[in-house]
Design goal:
The protein has a domain of 230 residues: Rossmann fold (3-Layer(aba) Sandwich). It starts with a helix and ends in a 12-residue tail after the last helix. The relative contact order is 0.14. Strand 6 and strand 7 form a beta hairpin. The strands form 4 sheets. A 7-stranded mixed β-sheet has the order 4-3-2-5-10-17-16, sandwiched between helices. Strands 1, 6, 7, 8 and 9 form a 5-stranded antiparallel β-sheet that branches. Strands 13-12-14 form a 3-stranded antiparallel β-sheet. Helices cover 36% and strands 24% of the residues. The chain is α/β, with parallel strands linked by helices. It binds S-adenosylmethionine (SAM).
Length: 383
């Protein structure tokens, strides 16, 4: 039995009712300080790892995001410092791509920039420090950032899908929560009363009634309460500026569609996708899609106004992805490089893959003239 399984069993045994919420289980599986998938150093992102992100395809995402950040800096009348806060920075490659792009193309902006990272995993912080050696990056915890102090842009690529989620199930006409307990068969799911009234309240706020007669039965889904606390924290720290969230997800209506009866929970192990979170513990990623209606709704409650939401394909096209494709025909690249670059750019805008990801931009503390200034990444209309 792995050490992590033992830790989870101990946690269950020491819990009052011999069970832990699925969210607590997922938190241990991913973020136990020594043994969790992200914290324990087993996480591998990219071709040789368990999953890949837009960042794994090369420098294009960072390069294009730099265009958006530079425009945001202009929109805010070139503040100094302009803080770029990356949350969940993975291997550190996106930070490197952004810093290189800004340094090369926007030297004045670069001189006004402070790049901060908030990262949960100590093992990944070590890797980020290696990759970003020589660049003026600061690693922060939320408690080290004063409330209402930051002017700039907070952003995250594929962070929110990695937060631990609660699982709920409709059973006998009631909304129940999924817990994890230990039986002779090993870690086993059972259902019980909701561990927090926030779960029922969430569905009320989303205008979703899972108990409605036309819902598939059985019906199980997830609630990302951690995303709501995260939004509250970001809003509290940001005095003035933006939040960009890029991730895979749906509106609440699509997320809690009556036919989506098994939720969106997925596990990734060596590029194989499956839906059993109880195997490969500490060795595999566990994720759930993001409810973007919830990000907009709760963001608004904390003072983060939605400035726009689009697909990653449109966002990157608006920032210059098309020009990058055109440049491949300029005669300055070899065939192999053209094929590799074209493939990467196509993947970034593939509507059935990374291009179909959502990009949400929220703003806080902006003057009317700043809030109404069209952000470049939002200028290509969705078809
Ligand atoms: C799926 S990876 C994405 C990494 C990177 N952004 C990319 O696109 O390649 C999720 C990242 O978020 C980090 N993370 C998870 N929960 C976090 C939290 N509460 N605060 C900060 N970072 C977190 C993980 O350790 C990891 O670096």
């Amino acid at each position: 039995m792995s050490q992590l399984v033992q830790v989870i069993r101990d946690r269950i045994t020491h819990s009052p009712q011999n069970k832990i919420s699925f969210a607590e289980f997922m938190d241990l599986a991913l973020y136990h300080p020594d043994l969790g998938y992200y914290s324990g150093g087993n996480v591998e992102i990219g071709a040789g790892g368990d999953f890949f992100t837009s960042v794994s395809l090369g420098a294009d995402l960072g390069d294009l995001l730099a265009v958006q950040f530079a425009q945001m800096w202009e929109c805010l009348s070139q503040p100094q410092p302009f803080i770029l806060l990356e949350m969940g920075a993975g291997l550190g490659d996106l930070a490197l791509d952004i810093l290189k792009a800004v340094e090369g193309r926007y030297p004045v902006f670069y001189s006004r920039l402070e790049y901060w990272i908030v990262e949960e995993s100590p093992a990944l912080i070590r890797r980020q420090k290696e990759v970003l050696k020589g660049y003026p990056v600061q690693w922060k915890t939320w408690s080290e950032i004063e409330d209402n102090s930051m002017v700039g842009c907070c952003f995250a690529n594929e962070l929110v899908d990695a937060f631990p989620v609660h699982q709920v199930r409709v059973e006998d006409g009631e909304l129940k929560e999924v817990y994890v307990t230990e039986t002779e068969a090993g870690l086993t799911e059972i259902t019980g009363e909701l561990s927090t009234p926030q779960l029922a309240q969430y569905f009320q706020e989303m205008g979703v009634d899972l108990l409605a007669p036309d819902y598939a039965k059985p019906y199980q889904t997830e609630v990302n309460l951690a995303a709501i606390s995260w939004l509250e924290t970001v809003a509290k720290k940001l005095q003035k500026g933006y939040l960009i969230t890029i991730d895979y997800g749906y509106s609440a209506t699509r997320y809690y569609n009556r036919e989506r009866s098994r939720g969106t929970l997925q596990c990734y192990y060596q590029h194989r996708r499956h839906n059993n979170p109880y195997i490969n513990l500490g060795q595999q990623d566990i994720t759930a899609h993001v409810n973007f209606t919830a990000l907009q709704h709760y963001g608004q409650q904390y003072g983060l106004e939605t400035l726009g939401q689009t697909k990653q394909a449109m966002f990157l096209m608006a920032l210059g992805l098309g020009e990058k494709l055109n440049a491949l025909s300029s005669g300055q690249f070899g065939v192999e490089q053209i094929l590799q670059r074209r493939d990467a750019l196509h993947q970034l805008m593939d509507p059935t893959g990374l291009g179909g990801f959502e990009t949400l931009i929220q703003g806080k503390g902006l003057k009317e003239t700043e809030a109404t200034q069209p952000l470049q990444g939002l200028t290509v209309p969705l078809f």
